[in-house]
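Design a sequence for this backbone.
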């Protein structure tokens, strides 16, 4: 026979689980576009991110030269802080849906794109699965990611490398051109 104390404890445990599962996480995203109206695509994507949570901060826009596949137009990039109750996989699905709805076609790896949205950090979580890796595995090597991110989250620590975004940016070698873009 179950006692009243056990029932109350079970109810309290369920309430705690419900509260924990709906706790909001702070997610940092990198957005980029190098096709068509780059600034318009970024603004459109930022607006659409409201379906995944609440946009708390957006960096300035930065014009950046392409890396790896360099025979393509320059990018506009920015970083976004998003508060969400989603899980990392749910957030990734939402981001991919936004990319698809905005016409993103994955025809060439690292090639031109209307919009690219990458999850950089998801709270302090570390995710390593075939579908998703968080923190983004190459972010610490990319000035086009770290420069905008340092503007809105300079003191956030990489959960694996244990260095702040500012430290990671400052440790990059000279090279890739990243410059603020007009009025953003």
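Sequence:
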């Amino acid at each position: 026979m179950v006692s009243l104390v056990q029932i109350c404890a079970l109810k309290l445990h369920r309430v705690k689980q419900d509260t924990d599962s709906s706790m909001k996480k702070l997610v940092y995203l990198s957005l980029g576009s190098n096709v068509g109206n780059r600034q318009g695509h970024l603004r459109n994507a930022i607006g659409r991110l409201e379906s995944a949570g609440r946009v708390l901060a957006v960096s300035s826009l930065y014009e950046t030269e392409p890396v790896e596949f360099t025979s393509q137009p320059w990018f506009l990039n920015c970083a976004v802080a998003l508060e969400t109750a989603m899980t990392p996989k749910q957030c990734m699905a939402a981001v991919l849906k936004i990319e698809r709805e905005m016409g993103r076609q994955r025809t060439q790896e690292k090639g031109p794109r209307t919009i690219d949205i990458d999850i950089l950090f998801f709270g302090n979580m570390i995710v390593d699965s075939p579908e998703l890796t968080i923190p983004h595995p190459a972010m610490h090597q990319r000035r086009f990611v770290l420069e905008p991110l340092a503007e809105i989250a300079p003191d956030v620590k990489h959960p694996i490398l244990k260095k702040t975004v500012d430290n990671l940016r400052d440790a990059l070698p000279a090279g890739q051109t990243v410059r603020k873009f007009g009025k953003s």
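The two ends are 65 Å apart (CA to CA).
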